[in-house]
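Data availability (excerpt). The following record was deposited with the supplementary files.
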Amino acid sequence: MDNPVINYQLVGIELVYMSIESMPIKGVGTKFTFDLRVEIKVNAQNKLVLPFVTIKIREAKDNVELAKIGVSCLFLIQDFEKYIVLNEKGLYHVPPVLETAIRPIAISTARGVMYSEFKGTYLNHAVLPVVNMTTLKKEEKV
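Predicted structure:
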């Protein structure tokens, strides 16, 4: 059962934090860079897997951080105990097939929240581009 079919439901979206710096005196250009990080957390008591998405927005030319936003999606996992188990380090293991399914949903949702929150500000046009999931680097938890 390497790639089991795991049923899940998106049951919540939370804006965890958001900050935006004052517009630089010289203004901002039209090109931005984005630092994107997705960390998968588990709430076993409520049978939830929570991808936590952090996005930092920088002006491409000067690399000055302009804003950051943190968004979490709450996924209720059917048969949670069957698929989300503790590993030898005492951390919950989320099967790769589930991570692969919910990670792009969480990033897309964060993109929408970011667009909504920054609408009407000087970052109105700083839209997170579509992310090719195969280009993301995976960092191991220590």
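Summary of structural features: Helices lie at 80-83, 96-118.
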